[in-house]
Amino acid sequence: MPTSSPTPSSLTPDAPVPDGGAAADTAARVRYLDEVMAEIDAEVRRRRASGDLPAGLEAELDELFLEFSPVGLQGRARLRETLSLVDGSAYVDIAVPTASNKAVGSYVKRLIRKGLGWYMNFVVAQIVKFAWSVSRMFHVVVDHIEDLEAAVETHRSPDLPADTVPVAGPGPAWWAAAAVEALRDVHDRVLVADCGDGALLDTLAAAGVDAYGVDPSDLVLEPALARGLDVRAEGIVAHLDVVAAEALGGVVLTGSLQWLRPNERERLLDLAASRLAVGGTLVLHSTTPEGWAASVTPVVRDLAPGRPLHAETWAHLLGSHGFAVAQPVRGGADHTLAHVGADASDAATVNAAIDALNDLLLGPTEYLVVATRER
Length: 375
Prior knowledge:
Layout: H1 21-50, H2 57-68, H3 75-89, H4 103-154, H5 176-183, E1 190-193, H6 199-206, E2 211-214, H7 218-226, E3 231-232, H8 236-240, E4 248-253, H9 262-275, E5 276-287, H10 289-295, H11 298-303, H12 311-320, E6 323-325, E7 329-331, H13 347-362, E8 366-373
Parallel strand pairs: 1-2, 1-4, 2-3, 4-5
Antiparallel strand pairs: 5-8, 6-8, 7-8
Helix pairs in contact: 3-4
């Protein structure tokens, strides 16, 4: 318990310290703190021995501190600290204090305690048994949480530097016309994820589509905000989480798809399916896995939390969530090799090899999937 005590005369916070730089200054301050704590401990022991501190007061103050003070520890330490408070509160003491300013009062209190002791002991024994059972259950839960945290930590992907995350270039993309055509007849609001500078929103607005956008980056939204577009600085999953069921007529997914972890991707599909009205349209644009691998650095390829999926995989996932999927449209950069002439030596063999190479590595690097919610 802190009490007022004289400052150690040998050293004060402002006292000069020997030459030696920051290390000497730090050592001097540590010695000063040790001396102050030693004096506080000595004062507490003296007051405890003199009877100034009533019996049980220190334990009561410790309990109050744990109950009402902000918990400074984090993670496992915080769980264990809170659990110790539960353990300390699990026992119920039926020894009611009988002290009184009047002699007859103390006698009456002892008589009441003795008369009710048999009854209270029966009830309290059951309460204590229940409290210890609950406390034990909390220990099991905390142990399980710590095991789960350890397992999750071993699978956590390192964070990528912010400058490695790709940003969509300004202006309309190759797939904008196809997206507008798919959404032209939608009457409800259309949400565009990772809308960037709002180029697609402009194109949709020109076609009479009521669209708004979200993007996790404040900076890339500045041009869209300057043009008065309806955009919000939010991630797509966080935004869909607060949208009402079947409130949207269309959703455009692009950009962050390549970074989604499997559980995040499943969450996104669940939300998109429930927030779209029946008959609503989902437009999904993504880079192919091959195109993505060729366009990013080895550091990004190795540390990215997720990878782009093939168009066929997205079609399968959307179909399992109640969507009817149209044939994917390929586009983007295309470095396809041309066939050799028929008069060349072994032309058929060479062209077959070229076709295989094009399919594996050199075809269009992006695709667009359009799906309609059926149920």
